[in-house]
Design brief:
The complex is a heterodimer of chains A (about 210) and B (about 525). Chain A is mostly beta strands and about 210 residues long. Chain A has three helices and eleven strands. Chain A is about 10% helix and about 30% strand. In chain A, about 35% of the residues are buried. Chain B starts with 11 loop residues before the first helix and ends with a strand. The chains are: A mainly beta (about 210), B alpha+beta (about 525). Strand 10 of chain A pairs parallel with strand 7 of chain B, so a sheet runs across the interface.
């Protein structure tokens, strides 16, 4: 059994709350509220053979951002999916209904402000008969890119050569794992857009009809 | 200065020396036997005598700072007493077509197969990645330095010894071979994969096919508006690979130069094939080109030719090399390749790696088959050739001979006026022989169908085609294929694969096709 997870989630006016859970297949879920009551929750799960998930995990009080540029999206496009533009499974399904192509959403349990494990996950919901296409996945060392003079993340700082792990859950249920690290960078050196959103850090997603 | 920042202990002293960098930099160069240590992240340079070095640290005696121990991984060492990189460092430089996707996948697949764990180091240079390989016990097994700045950077890397493998999406030039040989490096050339240069547009563009002539004129700026080629009116925006690119060289060689045209100065140039493709896909008026694997979100166009042959970008037509812009992807390996690199390249060229090739969006060299019906789109152009290139009785013989057979994707080509197989053909013979032997008993006949270009008379061409197919039969028998199984046919200039109006088309037509009957 998983240890209890604690989080704060705002209710909608009607008292409803929607959130995504990564608990695997058919796991019973009990939600216990801070003031005591517990309720069992019926999970509606995505069929795992309809999704590909890419997770990035790292340690430390620094922030990485996983960016998914779906179908040649640019930074300001709707199909640029990342933690800074909140998304959900329902929004991904809605976009799929709109253009007949698979789309995804980002979930995260970190923003780099606390110690310990940090994680961001991109979940892509496939559309079986869609046209061919590609999703570019990029990893931004946001703490360094936004603050190039931050001594922790540049030069010989503690997080200058930050390591991360990437996991991919494929549609066929296979999981692939990789490790990576950011090369140290000179302090106060601005990072250009191409270098910042580094697509070499993560595997890419391709769909062929 | 001080210890207010959480610096790793081994580098605390280096940080305290930061002020000294301002004095160290710009002073007299290192003397003989001295080394220079430069902090990779910048801001510190030390010169002095290297007292000790191992995998973890350098100990340097410097006039300015005395005896200092620093973490080796953080510093670049230059000088005669610097330790040589580990023997298992492999530099793989060159083609972005190969390096952006295929080689990274190949490295990871190789590592997985060999039981290595891999750490990928990403840098601010988006086309440079290092792979550190570790054994199961955590011991360093090697380093692969992958730099994908374009095919034209491969010969220089090999010449300077920075690379032991050159990735190239075009053939290496004789002058490049000479320059590398003059530097004392011996090279071996390997065909790594097959590919086609796809010409593509945005999915919003209604155009589905263009001729090579139209494509050439568009990229030269002579055709400026989509309305001139039957599209929706709009100024054509050009996207092309940069001058370091083998993809650009291939496009220039096959599309622009035959028309004596040059790329327009208005074309937006890219080092990265994925970036070029995505930019084209976003632009309803854009047109670009890159390898098949980089069609991504764009729409690939069929290529039509003046003699009526229409070639959509398809795996089979790339394998037969009949797609007009098909090409071979090469790995050039130097004799200085360390054992790790030898194992990697050996794997990359093996049958086991072919799934990785196709999984990366490229065309592998495994043999595929098509029925005569699937090849029937070749018949119409074949019937409209000039009279001197056609013979009705021979055509009827061809149809009767092949209609119940299946064509194999492997096709053997010849130099002009020659029955000598080219280098790919020589490598394909054992591949074909293994295919036939592994299907022993399945095929009653292996038909070797010889063809030529249209130079000369029809009967003379039939004789030449027969000589080629017969020579090829001998090569197959030498590889253990039963002679009784092989039937040789000669069809001369029938059924052209390319337009005989161009040298590139003629090259495609001088061939032996392999068909099998069950």
């Amino acid at each position: 059994m998983l240890s209890p997870q604690r989080f704060a989630e705002a209710y909608a006016q009607a008292g409803q709350s929607h959130f995504d859970c990564f608990l695997g297949d058919k796991v019973p879920l009990t939600v216990t509220f801070q003031d005591g009551p517990s309720v069992p929750v019926q999970l509606r799960t995505l069929d795992l053979d309809r999704i590909t998930m890419v997770a990035v995990v790292w340690k430390g009080t620094v922030n990485l951002d996983l960016h998914a540029f779906e179908y040649a999206a640019k930074l300001s496009d709707e199909n640029h999916v990342w933690a800074g533009a909140p998304s959900s499974r329902w929004q991904a399904e809605e976009r799929k209904r709109h253009d007949g192509r698979g789309h995804g959403f980002v979930s995260y349990a970190s923003d780099g402000s606390s110690e310990g494990d940090q994680i961001e996950v991109y979940t892509f919901v496939h559309e079986p008969n869609q046209n061919s296409g590609a999703v570019t996945l990029a990893l931004d060392y946001e703490s360094r890119s936004s603050h190039p003079g931050d001594q922790d993340t540049c030069g010989t700082g503690l997080y200058a050569d930050l390591e991360y792990k990437a996991f991919v859950w494929h549609q066929d249920g296979k999981v692939s794992r990789s490790r990576g690290a950011f090369a140290p960078s000179e302090c106060n050196r601005p990072v250009g857009e191409i270098a910042r959103y580094n697509s070499k850090a993560l595997p890419q997603l391709f769909f062929t009809r | 200065m001080g210890d207010t920042m959480p610096l790793r202990p081994v580098l605390k002293f280096a940080a305290c020396l930061a002020l000294g960098a301002a004095f160290a930099a710009g002073t007299k160069p290192a003397g003989a036997g001295e080394v220079t240590l430069v902090l990779r992240a910048g801001g510190l340079t030390m010169m002095g005598e290297l007292l000790q070095s191992n995998q973890g640290s350098y100990v340097i005696k410097s006039d300015k700072f005395g005896v200092v121990s620093v973490e080796a991984a953080k510093f670049e060492c230059s000088g005669p007493t610097c330790p040589k990189p580990p023997a298992s460092t492999v530099g793989i430089h060159g083609s972005n077509t190969i390096g952006a996707q295929l080689m990274p996948n190949m490295i990871e697949r190789f590592a997985d197969r060999e039981g290595y764990s891999v750490e990928k180091i990403v840098d601010t240079d988006p086309e440079a990645v290092q792979y550190k390989l570790y054994t199961n016990g955590g011991k360093a097994a090697g380093l692969i330095d992958l730099q994908s700045h374009g095919s034209n950077t491969a010969p220089a890397g090999l010449q300077k010894g920075k690379a032991q493998v050159g990735m190239m999406s075009r053939p290496i030039k004789p002058e490049e071979v000479k320059a590398i040989a003059d530097s004392g490096t011996k090279l071996a050339t390997h065909v790594f994969a097959l590919d086609g240069v796809a010409v593509f547009v945005s999915p919003q563009n209604p155009v589905k096919a263009l001729s090579l002539d139209e494509i050439a004129k568009m990229f030269a700026g002579a055709i400026k508006d989509w309305s001139e080629v039957g599209g929706t009116p709009g100024k054509i925006k050009l996207y092309a690979r940069d001058a370091k690119s083998g993809t650009f060289d291939t496009f220039d060689h096959l599309v622009l130069k035959p028309k004596n045209l040059k790329i327009s100065a208005e074309a937006q140039r890219f080092e990265s094939s994925p970036d070029l493709s995505d930019e084209t896909a976003r632009d309803p008026n854009g047109i670009g080109f890159a390898g098949f694997a980089y069609i991504r979100n764009a729409k690939a166009l069929a290529i039509s030719s003046e003699c009526g042959i229409v070639s959509p970008p398809q795996v089979f037509s790339v394998k037969t090399e009949e797609y007009p812009l098909s090409r071979r992807l090469y790995l050039q390996t130097s004799a200085a390749l360390p054992e790790l690199g030898t194992k990697l390249i050996s794997f990359a060229l093996s049958d086991s790696a072919q799934e990785t090739v196709s999984g990366s969006g490229f065309v592998n060299q495994r043999i595929e088959m098509q029925s005569f019906d699937q090849q029937s789109n070749r018949l119409a152009p074949a019937l409209t050739v000039p009279d001197k290139e056609f013979n009705f009785a021979a055509m009827r013989e061809l149809v009767n001979g092949l209609k119940n057979a299946q064509r194999l994707s492997v096709t053997f080509r010849f130099a002009k006026n020659s029955s000598t197989l080219d280098e790919k053909a020589r490598a394909d013979i054992p591949r074909l022989a293994n295919f036939l032997k592994s299907n022993a008993g399945k095929y009653t006949e292996v038909l070797l169908a010889g063809f030529t270009d249209s130079t000369g008379t029809f009967e003379a061409n039939r004789t030449t085609a027969l000589a080629r197919a017969t020579a090829f039969k001998g090569a197959l028998v030498a590889e253990g294929v039963p002679e009784a199984q092989i039937v040789v046919k000669s069809y001369g200039s029938l059924l052209p694969a390319g337009c005989n109006a161009t040298e590139a088309g003629k090259d495609k037509n001088r061939r032996v096709e392999v068909w099998v009957k069950e």
